[in-house]
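name: query_chain
kind: protein
chains: 1
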Amino acid sequence: PNTIFDWKAIYELPLKVTVDTKTRQFQYKMLHRILYTNKMLFKMNLVDTSKCTFCNDFDETIEHLMLHCSYSTLFWKDIIQWLNTFQINVELLSETTILFGIFENENFRLINHLILIGKQVIYTCRARKIKPHLPIFFAKLQNISAIELDIAKRRGALEHYYNKWNSLLSWLQL
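structure:
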């Protein structure tokens, strides 16, 4: 299907949802297809196989790694289930929303930031040759939330921080 994307909104999304520069940089690299996966590394003779680090069944591309690998899809389902326990309702993360973001949601900033963190975790796990799972996501989430809290304090923007993280504050216990 011919889908029309608002590329300006897609590229601005990381700037709107996080002050963490590493997360912003990660999404930029992903959108520009400069995150190296086994398919590309194999072509450069830097790895022995083009197959997925997690499932070893298909060529490892950005799309396979983030969307189609059985381990990644299970990881996304676990994140959705976890979010639903906080009444953050995300019924389904489609391929488009995982890659580019969700633009129609009351928790726009938080959900999109969590999606970005999820993608970072998948890619980091790939580099470490471990399967993505929630404890790694939780550790990354707590780290980034603490960074954002520190930045908000220094900038006098605590209200902005609490508006975004309000749904998860009891879990974060910062």
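note: Residues 9 and 103 are 9 Å apart (CA to CA).
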